[in-house]
Structures are given as C-alpha cells and as structure tokens.
Design the sequence.
C-alpha cells in the first residue's frame, strides 16, 4: 500500500521521470493514489508524494457543497504548461506538509497538455482553483513544494516553526 512522503524528505526534491508505459502497473498506481488522496482529505496528489518518480498526478476538486465525486477525477500524466496568464492568490496546503497553509501567488489561467492513463493526448484550459491545483501538483513533479514559493520572510518563519515542531515531537 502507498504512503505519503513528508517534508523534508529529499525524495520530494527529485525531478520525476516521464511516464512511458501506460500499462496495468500505472493504472494500479493511479487507482491507489486516488484512494489515498480521498482517505487523507486531499484534493490533489502527485506520484513523488508516494515515492514514485513518475510524472503522474491526480486532482479531484470538491463541488459547491464541498463533496468530491469520482466522476470529476482528473488523471494527468506528463503534463506541460503550454500557456499561462493572470495572477491569483490562493490559500494552499499540501499532504506532504501537514498543518501548514498559506497564500501563494500563481497564474490565474493555464493551458496544460497531458496524457491520460491510456496514453491519449489532451489539452486542458483551466482557471482559478483548478489552475492552482494543476500548478501545485506539476511543481511536485519538478521537486518544488508550495512553501518554496513563499516570500523569503514567510519561508524563514515556516522553516523555524517546522524545526520547533520537530524538536517537540522528538
Ligand atoms: Co502538494
């Protein structure tokens, strides 16, 4: 069974490899990532967060009632942001960085090319929450965490709080 890799594990810093086999192993991984994401109340999960160096991510945004439905599940393999525009400030969190939330500046709109689980090519225009989620998860494939995008002072404050928390639980 999969488990979450937490900050500051160096695995989260690796650049993930392109998906080349759209086979049963990949489908099993995606299925298990979905189950784990829902179990942990996440809206997105990238393969490096479960110790798989693959350019694969899942996103399942809640509807207006805050409910997640599997028919809205987005499986995104080998994504590339081919266009981006605008700016948006969004309060983000991450399953790999528990109990920390902060406002991060992202592009408001992105166009992403990607493959689905069968290797078919797609292009997606996204804005707002979905655009933010895509950028957050694609960052994971490149070894980048949302806290890396904090302004320097906030980044230092995060680091200090993290170290203090580690001392307390040690
Ligand atoms: Co994350």
Sequence:
């Amino acid at each position: 069974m999969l488990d979450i890799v937490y900050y500051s594990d160096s695995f989260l810093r690796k650049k993930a490899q392109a998906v080349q086999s759209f086979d049963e192993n990949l489908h099993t991984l995606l299925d298990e990532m979905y189950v784990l994401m829902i179990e942990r109340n996440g809206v997105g999960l990238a393969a490096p967060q479960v110790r798989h160096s693959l350019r694969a991510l899942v996103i399942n945004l809640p509807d207006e009632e805050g409910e997640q439905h599997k028919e809205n599940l987005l499986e995104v393999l080998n994504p590339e942001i081919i266009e981006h525009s605008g700016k948006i400030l969004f309060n983000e969190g991450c399953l790999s960085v528990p109990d920390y939330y902060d406002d991060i500046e992202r592009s408001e709109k992105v166009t992403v090319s990607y493959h689905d689980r069968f290797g078919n090519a797609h292009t997606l225009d996204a804005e707002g929450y979905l655009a933010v989620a895509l950028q957050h998860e694609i960052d994971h494939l490149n070894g980048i965490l949302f806290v890396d995008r904090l302004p320097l002072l906030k980044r230092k404050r995060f680091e200090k709080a993290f170290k203090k928390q580690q001392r307390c639980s040690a």
